Amino acid sequence: MDPCPFVRLTVGNLALKIPVASKPARSVVHPSSSPCFCKIKLKNFPLQTAVVPYIPPENQFPDNQFQTLAATFHLSKADIDKLAAKSIFSAKPCLKIAIYTGRRGTTCGVNSGRLLGKVSVPLDLAGTESRACVFHNGWISVGKEANKSSSAQFHLNVKAEPDPRFVFQFDGEPECSPQVFQIRGNIRQPVFTCKFSFRSTGDRNQRSRSLQSEPSSSRSWLSSFGSERERPGKERKGWSITVHDLSGSPVAAASMVTPFVASPGSDRVSRSNPGSWLILRPGDGTWKPWGRLEAWRERGSSDGLGYRFELIPDMSAAAIVLAESTLSSGKGGKFVIDLGGTSNGNGTNGRATPGSATSPVCSPRSSGDFGYGLWPFSVYRGFVMSARVEGEGKCSKPSVEVSVQHVNCTEDAAAFVALAAAIDLSMDACRLFSQRLRKELCNDQDLHG
Q1: Binning pLDDT at 50, 70 and 90, where does residue 150 land?
Q2: What is the band of 191 on the pLDDT scale with cuts at 50, 70, 90?
Q3: Could you tell me if 30 and 54 are in contact, meaning their C-beta atoms sit under 8 angstroms apart?
Q4: I need a surface site. Which of 50, 269, 420, 421 has the fewest CB within 10 A?
Q5: Quick one: DSSP state of residue 217?
Q6: Handedness of CA 445, 397, 342, 166 (dihedral sign)
Q7: Could you report how far apart the first and last alpha carbons of the chain are, in Å?
Q8: 165-170 and 179-184 as β-strands: parallel, antiparallel, unpaired?
């Protein structure tokens, strides 16, 4: 499989130094007593915001300081070409940053922050698909007195580095058992087939007939993670989807192990009682759990699909949350696992659309150049995957991007494809129970009961 070129543009190591005036004006909000923040903008991409730490004027930015990442933009080859095309008629594309003192947000429609100054960093993205490039690393003078020694100083690091990805596209909705194509430019190559089915309620061992052997030990996997209790009332249960390679061998699966049940007195799946899926991979002749996805319907103005995805290393270790956020039920969005990203909720996924999610809330980070600590499962770091799904009632053919560094075999890619299918199907599983599902998602009992 040949990957598609992508570039990861990052902004980090932010800091601000403001000289202390001999007679400070009462109207000036000083960062030592009030937080600072900045707005980061790249043309054609959503605006991002980040907190800016304050450093006393007499201090230097320490070289060994914890490396913080403030914003990330994911650029495809088409994005880079579009930015480069703009430079024919104007200056080179620039990353623009506006720095504010005071708190973020608005009061009565008026921004509460006070603009301190603006910074513009030129970007020459040619060749960054194959080599890393640092566009700026150090201090910049900002404010009305930017050319004087008494000006405020803003520290930042802006760099781009290659981030190649495999891109997959479902050729139909997951419940219709579609083919999955790998996309590279204008080339579409079939790589997987999906089989949607209903697991009988008495079989907690969701298994594929294609597996040649199945040790009895595998029978406990799903019952260990799923809900065995009988649930009265409205529920959606027993869905599963198996991903096969082109030879017909099963290489991944997603199985609904906890039914999606309407909360008492309501028509929705609640956060306190979510439905859940196991994402399974074959091993030693049986299925082994790789991850667990929980999903529910959020209340309030968002009225979206809430989700949490956990990595399951093995039965002896605790699960690790890799993603937790919300997608718009109406517009859909991107499910993203990005362990080098930020969690400010302002579109840190670059090409994010309304309803996109940042993840994870509790990503481990450590020292190094935007580095990643030696946490137990550091095999997953940086951008891991994203899946674009449509909102309710729309034809959804999920597209999936997976970082090359996380694909060592066919089963690796298939697991992410199965996870994308589970996210898409959760959009239907969490629909209000007053709404009927399409016939492919209803078993005979649902249709005739």
Answers
A1: low
A2: very high
A3: no
A4: 50
A5: G
A6: positive
A7: 46
A8: antiparallel
Are residues 43 and 103 in contact, defined by beta-carbon separation less than 8 angstroms?
Answer: no
What is the pTM for the complete model shown? 0.80
Dihedral (CA of 43, 47, 50, 55) sign: positive
Q: How far apart are CA 156 and CA 52, in angstroms?
A: 10
Measured CA to CA, the distance from residue 211 to residue 250 in angstroms comes to 7
Longest Cα–Cα distance of the chain, Å, equals: 82
Q: Rounded to whole angstroms, how far apart are CA atoms 87 and 122?
A: 11
Structure tokens at 387: 């899946």
207 pLDDT exceeds 50?
no
CB atoms within 10 A of CB 109: 5
- In the sheet that holds 48-52, the strands lie side by side as 48-52, 36-42, 94-101, 114-122
User: Could you say which DSSP state residue 437 is in?
Assistant: P
And the tokens for 417?
A: 């494809």
Total count of residues recorded for the chain: 449
pLDDT digits (tens, 9 = 90+) for 57-82: 777 766 555 568 899 999 999 999 88
